[in-house]
Amino acid sequence: MNEMVQDPSKASGTRATRQRGARDAASTPGADRVRINDPDRTMANILQVATAEFADKGLAGARIDEIAALTSTSKRMIYYYFGSKEGLYVAVLEDAYRRIRRIESELHLEDLAPEQALRTLVGFTVDYQLANPDFIRLVMNENMHRGEYITQSATIQELNIPVIHAVRDVYQRGVAAGVFRPDVDPVDLHMSISALCFFNVANRHTFGAIFKRSLDTPAATAQRRESIIEMIVRFLRP
């Protein structure tokens, strides 16, 4: 294998330095000058393409040559920005979690009554995962690596703190209002929501083939969405 290898945690820590270097290098001649004139846009493009490649082929199957070709850049620039194939993979994971957590933060759950806030959060999770199957595939691939790379990213650890705080706040407000029972761990609640929503994407092909049921029609999607919301809400009721 001719891919560069580097500790992903070091790659994550030096990414900002590389980006600043790319901006400084924009005034110097070279084959990649046009691409590094806008490093933010270049990095975003690389991450978008790499997300699809890693989701489809996993860390081992994805190739930097292919990602470079699809982004009209070079392996040299990809390594400059991300340090290594593993560093790019970690950056893709970080970007995937950053997107979902950013949208979650815009739901303004604190402005809703507890049960409505819970229904909104669960419904959003169902919708987001159905609309973003690459996110599910990335998580599945990383589980095949037993979380080896995700645990090396302090960024991912930090990104997932707010969602637990949001779930805890909704739950505690519901307990105080007497609409939720007072014996549920918020992390366990988050896990249950994730598990039900994750199944829709991760297992829909096998489940559909075995039980001869289509899970992709609008009617089936809407029915399953409502079932998941109701299961979570009823689980929390006193």
What does this structure look like?
- It is a single chain.
- With 238 residues, this protein is mainly alpha-helical.
- The chain contains 13 helices and no strands.
- It is globular and about 60 Å long.
Q: Characterize the main sheet.
A: none
Name the poorly predicted regions: 1-6, 8-12, 16-34
User: What's the mean pLDDT score?
Assistant: 87
Question: How many E-type strands?
Answer: 0
Helix content, binned percent: over 70%
Compute the CA-based radius of gyration. 21 Å
**Cα shape:** globular
Q: Give the amount of beta strand, in percent.
A: under 5%
Q: Give the H and E element order.
A: HHHHHHHHHHHHH
Measured distance between first and last alpha carbons: 57 Å
Q: Which structural class best describes the helix and strand composition? A: mainly alpha
Number of helices, where a helix is a run of at least 4 consecutive DSSP H or I residues: 13
